Amino acid sequence: MPRDPLKECCVSNEAPAHIPDPAPKPQPVAGPPEADESYSVLATLKSPRRLRVEVLAGLVVALALIPEAISFSILAGVDPRLGLFASFTMAVTIAFVGGRPAMISAATGAVALVIAPVVRDHGIDYFIATVILAGVLQVIFGVLGVAKLMRFIPRMVMVGFVNALAILIFMAQLEHLIGVPWAVYPLVAVGVAIIVLLPRWTKVVPAPLVAIVLITAAVVLAAINVPTVGDQGDLPESLPELFFPDVPLTLETLQIIAPYAVAMALVGILESLMTAKLVDDITDTHSNKTRETWGQGVANIVTGFFGGMGGCAMIGQTMINVKASGARTRISTFLAGVFLLILVVALGDIVAIIPMAALVAVMIMVSVGTFDWHSIKPNTLKRLPKTEITVMVATVIVTVWTHNLAYGVLAGVVIAVILVAHRVAHFTTVTRLDASDEDDTRVYAVTGELFFASSNDLYYQFDYTGDPTNIVIDMSNAHIWDASSVAALDAITTKYEARGKNVRIVGMNEDSARRHELLAGHLGGDH
Known about the structure:
Transcription Regulator spoIIAA, two-stranded antiparallel sheet, 20 helices
């Protein structure tokens, strides 16, 4: 049977619907990617074909990183060199310490937005100190197992996250398509055509790289006046050097940078782990999320001490590396950083003449390839529960509206929890059993999951006045999950006892009985 990406791990409030996947995928590889010999670094180094794929993928990613790093530097309000150096150090470091092979980490817009106020209000030294502290916090979060919280992110939040990223990637290209010379448009069209059509003929060389080379050659030979990479900002002329931020090691400094560092750490972890999960799905492999979490921290610490602006995983460049170019190992990630440094420092004059139209074409196709088109097919939408569609759409809207992935994912998770809680709350029922041998005894059977949402209605489902002297509440088909449920049972017992009636609760499973015994009578107050 084909894998169904929408059906897997989907938090559904209704009976799951079968949503066929248009094309079957390979069977998952057991264990981490390194366990698959064909995708190990050593095996790739021994295979000229695989090594060529990794090398060319790294080159394409490096070219795509340059304008992104420059634009994110401008967004953060710092010199473009800080973004370019960050992309180099992040990519090279994460290639060794990260938990998801072939994923690209570099300077990102999400991180730039979070910490931009620091450089504006306090200067570059405090800015770099914030990056370093964020890295330290990510290492701590990784050791504490924060990555395990990924299991609580519903599948439809993931789908919304992916679709929102695709939209944001496309929207980021609009500034290069509005108010530009007319020649930009046919160049972009040609680039898109090359990327779409070339793989049907040959996959020896990545189509994005061919598009970049051919469009650059055409623009140079024909002397076409269009925006180039050099127009985005100055490229560095020297290697990055060790940098120690000149800030006082005081509580006041910590109070200034800590809020921004915490925000950067959480946003970076969230974006990186979501991207890692996406690559896991695409490649049908597993990755070490805990290692990826603290690895991002190590990369940010290294980046900070080399004067970089910090960053996290990049969805667009990762898709270029994994999906468009076919890379699967740490080699491509490492070479992306190395090639980036070589290109901007040693070959800066050549890189500067690359038309932005070529890179825009690449990113447009990345956007198209990233979007989960299956999720919006009429047949899919018809079969999905409305609650799932709501979660996906909310995640997309909030992410695109705020340009902040953390807000979008948080909104999606909160809405999913509310909808699930609302649905489950109505699964709890209380049934009066009239078949009792004793006239002075009334038996109630409680069925369902008792937690804060469902237990509130429990209190109102008993006839306190009309019931006889003895009340038996049968919990054989119920489970107590929290203190709210114990408090509700206490309130029921108290109300019966106030009328001179006895209540006996029977049939609890071991976990429910333990929780009830621990908390009953100790929560204080009536209902």
